[in-house]
Write a structure and sequence with these properties.
about 130 residues, mainly alpha, three-stranded antiparallel beta sheet, 3 strands
C-alpha cells in the first residue's frame, strides 16, 4: 500500500452500521448529485468566471463583455450560450443591442463562498470579497 | 451567421466605453479567475458531491463513506485526497480509524445556493434544500 493510501484509509475495515444507515436515508440520488455537479461544472471555467464577475458589477452588452475580458465576440457568444442554458444569465434586447445580466443573486453568493473558502490561505481572495456585497 | 449566433450577439458592434472602463477597474485577474474556477472544478464531480453531501450530515470514517456511496475504498480514498488538497474536508485519526468531516460551512452554503438555483425549475432540488439547514 502506498504512503498516500495509508494516509487516506482506515487501517482496518470498520463499518459503523448505524452511521451508514442514517446517512443513506437522507442521501441524494445519483441524478441529483449529477445535476448539482453540472451546476458547478458551468462555473469551473475561468472565462465564464470572468464574464460572471463582470456582470456582477453591471449589465453589459455582448460587445462590452468581449472588450472587458479581451476575448472575441464569437468566444463570448459561445460562453453566454452555456451560461444562458444553465440559467446563470438572462438577456434583454434593446434595438440592435443585446444586454446580459445575472439571472439571480445565486451566482454572487456562490462566488462569495468560493472566495471566502480560498481566503483562508490566499491573500488574493480576501481583497475581492470587498467587491461582492 | 447561424441562428444561435444572432441570438447571442449584438447586431452591430457597439462598445459603451464608460461601462467597459468601469468594469475593467474592478475586474479580477486571470489568476484569480482560474483559482475560483478550480474551486468549482473540485465540486463538479458527482462522486465528490455525494461524499460531501454525506459528510454534511455527519462525520464518517473512510469505510463508512465507501459503504454509503457504494464505491470502493480505493475510489473514496482517491477522491478524499482531492477534497483534502482543496481544503474542503478535514480528518482526525482515532486509533486505526480515519474520520472525515467538512472543513467548514462553505461547502454547505455552496450546495445550498446550487440547489436553490436549480430549484427554480426542478422539483428535485427543492426537496433537498430542506436537508441543508
Amino acid at each position: 500500500m502506498a504512503d498516500f493510501d495509508r494516509f487516506d484509509r482506515c487501517e482496518v475495515t470498520c463499518i459503523h452500521e448505524e452511521a451508514v444507515s442514517a446517512v443513506r436515508q437522507v442521501m441524494i440520488s445519483d441524478d441529483v448529485a449529477q445535476s448539482l455537479a453540472d451546476i458547478f461544472k458551468t462555473l469551473a471555467d475561468s472565462t465564464r468566471v470572468k464574464m460572471l464577475f463582470a456582470l456582477m458589477h453591471r449589465e453589459l452588452c455582448v460587445c462590452d463583455l468581449a472588450a472587458v475580458i479581451r476575448a472575441s465576440e464569437s468566444s463570448v457568444s459561445h460562453q453566454l450560450r452555456i451560461l444562458r442554458t444553465n440559467k446563470l444569465v438572462k438577456f434583454r434586447r434593446d434595438g440592435k443591442i443585446l444586454y446580459y445580466s445575472l439571472a439571480d443573486d445565486h451566482v454572487k453568493t456562490l462566488f462569495k463562498q468560493g472566495l471566502e473558502h480560498a481566503s483562508h490561505d490566499e491573500a488574493w481572495a480576501a481583497q475581492f470579497l470587498d467587491f461582492i456585497k
